[in-house]
Amino acid sequence: MTNTLLFTNSKRSRSDDTGSGDAKKLASAIHRHDPASALASARHEFGEHGGVNMSIEASATFTVMEPETMRRMFTGELGPDGDYFIYSRHFNPTVLNLSRLMAALEGTEAAYCTASGMSAISAVLLQLCSNGGHIVASRALYGGTHALLRHFLPRACNITTSFVDVDDLKMVEEAIVEGKTKVLYFESVSNPTLMVANIPELSRLAHQKGVTVVVDNTFAPMVLSPVRLGADVVVHSISKFISGGADIIAGAVCGPASLVNSMMDLHQGTLMLLGPTMNPKVAFELSERIPHLGLRMKEHCHRALVFATRLKNLGFKVIYPGLEDHPHNELLKSIYNKEYGFGGLLCIDMETEERANWLMHHLQNHGQFGFMAVSLGYYETLMSCSGSSTSSEMDPEEKALAGISPGLVRMSVGYIGTLEQKWSQLEKALIRLQEHGLSNKN
């Protein structure tokens, strides 16, 4: 059974495909897609009794009036597009509404929301790759994704991965094995090094080889629209910026309707058979948060740019794509949705773990600047030393190849309080750092 999804968002046409390398078509596609406008145009679900907010459909199973209806539902003749639902592991009305919003956000034909970001990534890769398949992936990835590709998939599924520097197009091209490589996988903005992927060129190269491009856009919702830049599939950890509350674990797959429907197939679909089902109550919560995602992202990004600029002016080693000395600053300016800024994360390279830990400890326990915690997109600033936390799955050589310094402090810049209040807290900690002889200013 392959039920058709109901999505009212505009579909990606051939003219939006960057495989042709047509710069004018690409520029036009980028100009056309505004995530906020797309979200405002998406179908709005009202509540059962006329409420402006949709009702939560908490049922696990759904009734039919006639036995023949159920038979037709299981053969795929009737589906969610006609408001026919079987079982919430397959499709749930509340989760389907969130999926429509995610499709609108990313400008894709369809989307499906899952229980976590890792389940979204795993389901896509297992749908696109079979036993003996091959993936080309960026060296700079979230540690959990790296472990999935480096350790789990080879052991459990005989799917191997070649890790490359996606900045080096020749290296990427040489790693692709025609007829065997199924996926080119990378993050739009890498975790934690904040390198920006050249999505148009990487997509063009992959499509020439018949390879599907999957992009993790968790770090840059609203800021980048990978499918409009040529990618095929976008995955998200909705737990981060999209949720914004650090209280929900969720993920999403955004892409062609044909792919999403195949993932829901009764016999071969990874989403259907592995069952990473989202709770409809979670879907409702997230649907209420997405409308103000654009406002939140603008403030995250604005503060990150101000802090990064001031830190650099003080002589610290700062990594932020919005700074002119960032190696991908011009690239990002050429592909981003400019009204949303350059991203809500920055990194301070303290070079050693000792200096990184001192800074984070002081900022949390004395300066009230933020919290030592993994994850991102929260209204408070979250800080972690990536090498010993979210990238700890990598060995020292892999960290070095990914550009992860032992003292790299990743900051997800929050928006609570006033900007100047938070900057004062950060600046005082930096002064104390210097007084203790732990500064590593340029």
UniProtKB/TrEMBL annotation:
Which keywords does the record carry? Pyridoxal phosphate
From the UniProt record, list the coiled-coil ranges.
none
Xref: CDD domains: CGS_like
| UniProt keyword annotation of Zinc present | no
Q: Where is the composition biased (Polar residues)?
A: 1-10
- Region (Disordered): which ranges? 1-27
Cofactors needed by this protein, per the record, are:
pyridoxal 5'-phosphate
Protein name listed in UniProt: Methionine gamma-lyase
Q: What is the organism lineage in this UniProt record?
A: Eukaryota, Viridiplantae, Streptophyta, Embryophyta, Tracheophyta
